[in-house]
Amino acid sequence: MYLRKLILSVIFVSSTAMFGATLTLKNGKVLQGKVVNQTRTDVQMEVDGKVLTIPKTEIQELRLKDEPKQEPKKVEPQKKEEVPPKKEEVAQPGKIRWWQKPRWNYPLSSAVLPGWGIWKAEKKWQGAATFAAVVGLAYYSVKTSGEFHSAKSAYQNKVYEYLLISQSNSTLNPPSATLIRVLIGSAYSGGAFKHYQTASTQSNDALIFFGIAYGAQILYSYFLGVQKEKLLTGDATPEGFQFSLNPTYRPASMGGNGVGWNTELRYSWRF
After folding, report:
1. CA max distance for the chain
2. What are phi and psi of 254, to 5 degrees?
3. 172 close to 180: Cβ distance less than 8 angstroms
């Protein structure tokens, strides 16, 4: 074992003596010459004809001039794999949901608040008038419905009162007095019955008018939304149904009765 180390040391020393060398000390001084001998603790180097013994503890670097340099390998950066975005994460700028389109947004708004869709269509006064009309009809419907229930209750009370009177009266109680009992009962509760019929008719008419007004303003909002979409696409004169509602004033001297409403429903077709 010792013999092998000795042989390797001789070979190394002899090989280093064959090459020039550059020695860098830790204090920054650089020596150039020829390495003539090297031990475990020292390096003997011939510089300008003089042999210097330098401890290895003072050496920063020892490089042979003819030693082949190994170029550092270039490490190419690894390319990151591009992960395609999920379909849910792909942003689509400018995409409009169906409920945001005017043809659906306007009627939905009018369904929530009467006249709101018409207001959004930049018909302010029509939207305000529609709101007032629908709210007024709703109030009238509630009022007539209350009157109807009151009239119904009053009529039922009249019928019950006459039933008690006829049962306690010996003249009206016998079966032979049926015709007289019916005639007197009709006269007794006739006024309450007529009021009940009138209140029922008014309540039904009020509900019908309210339903028509509420549905018509939603339909009108839809047509305004369709026209708005066509105008946004550059069609200044859109085809299809067009509905207009405008107030008119005709004085009494000309046979009018003040402020009225002028409605028009038309269909435009271009060729």
Report:
1. 165
2. -105, 15
3. yes
For residue 130, how many other CB atoms are within 10 A of its CB?
25
Write down the residue that tokens 């659906």 correspond to.
Answer: 104
Q: Are 33 and 45 in contact (CB under 8 A)?
A: yes
Q: Which of 228, 230, 246 minimizes the C-alpha distance to 238? A: 230
Tokens of 11: 């070979």
Side chain identity at 130, as an amino acid letter? Answer: T
Give the CA distances from residue 40 to residues 19, 55, 147, 231, in Å, rounded to whole numbers and listed in that order.
Answer: 19, 9, 121, 95
Would you write out the chain's pLDDT as a tens digit for each of its 271 residues?
555 554 445 444 444 444 577 878 888 888 878 888 888 888 888 888 788 888 888 888 877 765 544 555 555 666 666 666 555 444 455 577 877 888 899 999 999 999 998 998 888 998 999 999 999 999 999 999 999 999 999 888 888 887 887 777 777 767 766 777 778 777 877 788 888 889 999 999 999 999 999 999 999 999 888 888 888 776 655 566 666 666 666 666 666 655 666 666 666 654 4
Closest CA to 218 of 112, 132, 143: 112
**pTM beyond 0.70:** no
Q: How far apart are CA 107 and CA 214, in angstroms?
A: 11
Nearest to 65 by CA among 33, 42, 43, 40: 33
Q: Cβ atoms within 10 A of the Cβ of 241, count?
A: 14
Beta-carbon contacts of residue 9 (< 8 Å; ≥ 6 apart): none
